[in-house]
Amino acid sequence: MGAPIPVRLPEDIREQVKARAEADHRTVSNWIRLVIERELATGDDAVVGGTSVR
User: Fold this and answer.
1) pLDDT along the chain (54 residues), means of 10
2) Separation CA 20–CA 23 (nearest Å)
3) At what angle do helices 28-41 and 11-23 cross, to 10 degrees?
4) Distance between CA 21 and CA 35 in Å, rounded?
């Protein structure tokens, strides 16, 4: 595993992430990694803030 990447989330989003992770019997970090891996696997070009992330 590489170096940690700090991510700041608004409280309401953090609580939603925590609830979903608990529902999947995962840690928050593991759940976030899973979501990122799924998103990257879709192969879709994404645009964030007007900038392509690919």
Assistant:
1) 92 98 97 93 69 60
2) 5
3) 90
4) 10
DSSP-derived secondary structure letter, 24: T
The token pair at 11 is: 């409280």
Q: DSSP label at 5? A: -
Q: Name the pTM for this structure.
A: 0.73
- Would you state the structure tokens that stand for residue 41, as one six-digit string? 């696997």
- Per-residue confidence (pLDDT) for residue 43, from 0 to 100: 74
Asked whether 41 and 51 are in contact (CB, 8 A), the reply is no
The span from the CA of 45 to the CA of 3, in Å, is 26
Number of helices followed by number of strands (H, E) in the chain? 2, 2
